[in-house]
Amino acid sequence: xxxxxxxxxxxxxxxxxxxxxxxxxxxxxxxxxxxxxxxxxxxxxxxxxxxxxxxxxxxxxxxxxxxxxxxxxxxxxxxxxxxxxxxxxxxxxxxxxxxxxxxxxxxxxxxxxxxxxxxxxxxxxxxxxxxxxxxxxxxxxxxxxxxxxxxxxxxxxxxxxxxxxxxxxxxxxxxxxxxxxxxxxxxxxxxxxxxxxxxxxxxxxxxxxxxxxxxxxxxxxxxxxxxxxxxxxxxxxxxxxxxxxxxxxxxxxxxxxxxxxxxxxxxxxxxxxxxxxxxxxxxxxxxxxxxxxxxxxxxxxxxxxxxxxxxxxxxxxxxxxxxxxxxxxxxxxxxxxxxxxxxxxxxxxxxxxxxxxxxxxxxxxxxxxxxxxxxxxxxxxxxxxxxxxxxxxxxxxxxxxxxxxxxxxxxxxxxxxxxxxxxxxxxxxxxxxxxxxxxxxxxxxxxxxxxxxxxxxxxxxxxxxxxxxxxxxxxxxxxxxxxxxxxxxxxxxxxxxxxxxxxxxxxxxxxxxxxxxxxxxxxxxxxxxxxxxxxxxxxxxxxxxxxxxxxxxxxxxxxxxxxxxxxxxxxxxxxxx
Length: 577
What we know:
The chain is of the alpha+beta class.
């Protein structure tokens, strides 16, 4: 494809062509309008001038003939009544001549012939008609007839000839006007044909120009774009034609280069992703093998290790019961150490098993009423609360999607922790509350215990992380790690609120059901739960007074002799960390 010559843009070319065609058509239209006006003038001349002149010339001839006939009749009869047509013909002659003169502004030659007719008729009347009339009146008809001679007839023939010349001149003028009408009509038709030819030629030129300047370059550009679209991203797009198409081709080529560059980056990223996926697959296989090993370990720990451990603990307890006080004090101490170590090992194994089973042995999520769960938690922690003289209360709690055994274990661990880490100088009080924050329920467990220093707020959720010695506060140090794992398994998060004025506040979130979120959105704003403050504190305690409150600390039996170390939630072992 050869480049289009010239540097004019397509817009400029089209505008120039349309301007030329427009000027030609305007010129032709102007000429046609002028020719049509001229044709109309010439037709008006035929209809309003030469036509009436022909009729009036014939009336003039008739008026002259009436005069001549009246004069002859009067010369024969001598009757004055026969002169009536003479006078009427004379009046008709004058009126006709006056009317013809009103139409002769554009025909001076006809006016000259009309004057000749008028003069000839006047001469005839002076030389023939009036003498015959006067002689007939004075001398009688014989004398009057004597004046009607051949010479008198020749004088009247001169009048008739002058009228004939006038009619011929009028006819010539009419024929000339008719010829002008025919010529102007033919010229008007010619101008219309020329205008049609201009339109046809302009259309043909426009079509050829569009084919050469638009269709061919666009076809070439489309062909090259298809080649790129088929995968040849390195094919350079070269466009010919008007400057607009060249710029369009440059833009398309720049887009091609950008796409090629992006595709290269995508290929590199895909190769990296494939490599990462292969590494992740290897790691997944390793994790699968590791999980199998852990499951095997859990099986061994729950069966093979538990049996000898129970045997060691049982015989140590038998030794302690049978030989207590029979050996020296050091032997009793050694036996006590052995019994305590075996029991702590059992608790540790049980806690590790419970931790490893979270999220692995699942029964599926169902709607769980946390109020019912708190009733179970109150029953599980009853002995511990009696021993510590603790009070457990909770406001109306929501229904969420989750696993009831895990949620029971979660709340039991939090309540047991609050009871265990109580202040020695005040009865323990534990309060559970909930509020809707966005699409999540924020549940708080707040107590009046010893509290947690801010620097240790993140460490307490680490497995086996202890802030106190086991002598001061017994436990395996895994309870809050279980709490964190259960919360995350349910899609929430857990943290310690260090801004409470007294005790410890552990808060965690659980996803709310869609119907609860919609109901909260449709409720009156005054009834909406209060939002959290900027420092992270909540007015849950203040708002709890307006909600139904449940208590598990009133009218309880007297405290037990010692604190329990563990309880059960269904088939899931509940551990106090």
